Amino acid sequence: MSILSRSLVAAVSVVSLTLGATALSVSVATADEVDTTPGTVVDVEELAPGLVLPGAADAKRITYWTTGFDGKPALSTGAFFVPEGEAPEGGWPVLGWAHGTSGLGDDCAPSLVGPADAGRDRQYLGTWLDQGYAIAATDYAGLGTPGLMPYLDGKASAHSVVDSVKASREVDASLSNKWVVIGQSQGGGAAITTARYATEFGGSELDYRGAVGTGVPANIELALLPLGPGVLPVAAGKGLTTYLLYILAGLRYAHPEIDLNSYLTEQGRQLVDRAETVCVLDAEEEFAGTISGDLFSRPLNQIPNFYGLLNDYMGVPTSGYDRPLFIGQGLTDTDVPAPAALSLVAQLKANGQDVTLHTYPTDHSGALLQSRVDSIPFVKQLFE
């Protein structure tokens, strides 16, 4: 089946999945014609010229099938970038890039508008292209595709990351099956969680080698346990408030059974609704000054098995890894404070996992850029 034909089938199947329009789906294509195998490409287009990374000889925007938070087929978009020059024997080694927080609205997808911190991320990713790596960059399912991205759901993000590598290789045969996952902030957590499942999700088609995560939001679920009326009684930083609202929006979407709205005040419901559509830079300004304690009508810890639910939704695994991990952390990071990464590394080491920690005397974004001096040789060794 051609990519154009698959695009038509995928479009119809999306209508069927989101509206329950079974009759429409059957009238155009039978179920057997809709190949929702993870990594299957349904559309390819040229990436907007302004979004092409420096040092890329080719760049495409893709739509592909993956697995959603509920275990069902879901569509994701993304982009891939190929370095300049001739591919080495076996093809360009691939980096699966997990991006940081951009927002939840469909118009926040990096393959449509670029990364939220364009100066930082373009510089960082351009360095990897210069080193001779292709980059597969998912948007994550639900960001620019039907549904809502379940923010910080690491396992759902892992599916999107792994399948972006599969999809990119389907389009461009010059890409190797050898790959490493890298990510920052939201994507740092996604990268480390992807590392836990990469071999399983990739199957025999891919040769996964290891992971790099910076600004990893680990054990953040613990900060949600005490939240309720009056907690916190003062405004937190605008970034932290935005992250909280994104978490609540994603949790409400992924777990309707907990009736999260019943734990929110009218203001809380309005702001969580708004968080579903506003991209991160605008959201930080709009939500600045919000007092989180005013969002809640009753304590969140009244939700049955609240910690278990949160840990399953956004907890970063602390065991079960089969390849080396690199975690980089800024010591003056106020977006993801250092204790998050340090506690995760301690848990990983206690469980006998192969993890390397590097700290840097800088903030959230600075750690991503400064980590290159250590992460580049780390990744090179993984491929060797």
Topology:
Layout: H1 3-19, H2 22-28, E1 41-46, E2 56-67, E3 73-83, E4 92-98, H3 110-113, H4 118-130, E5 134-138, H5 154-171, E6 175-184, H6 186-202, E7 207-214, H7 221-224, H8 238-254, H9 266-275, H10 280-286, H11 306-314, E8 325-330, H12 338-350, E9 355-360, H13 364-370, H14 372-383
Parallel strand pairs: 4-5, 4-6, 6-7, 7-8, 8-9
Antiparallel strand pairs: 1-2, 2-3, 3-5
Description:
- The chain has 384 residues and is α/β, with parallel strands linked by helices.
- Helix content is 40%, strand content 18%.
- It has 14 helices and nine strands.
- Helix 6 links the parallel strand 6 and strand 7 (207-214).
- The longest helix is centred in the middle third of the chain and has 18 residues, at 154-171.
- The chain starts with a helix and ends with a helix.
Please give the share of residues in helix: 40-55%
Structural class by secondary-structure content: alpha/beta
In percent terms, what proportion of residues is strand? 15-25%
The outline comes out as globular
Distance between the termini: 37 Å
Please outline the major beta sheet. Answer: 9 strands, mixed
Radius of gyration, in Å, reads: 20 Å
The number of helical runs is: 14
**Spatial order of the strands forming the largest sheet:** 1-2-3-5-4-6-7-8-9
Mean pLDDT: 92
What is the string of helix and strand elements?
HHEEEEHHEHEHEHHHHHEHEHH
Give descriptors for this structure.
alpha/beta; 384 residues; 14 helices; disordered N terminus; 9-stranded mixed sheet
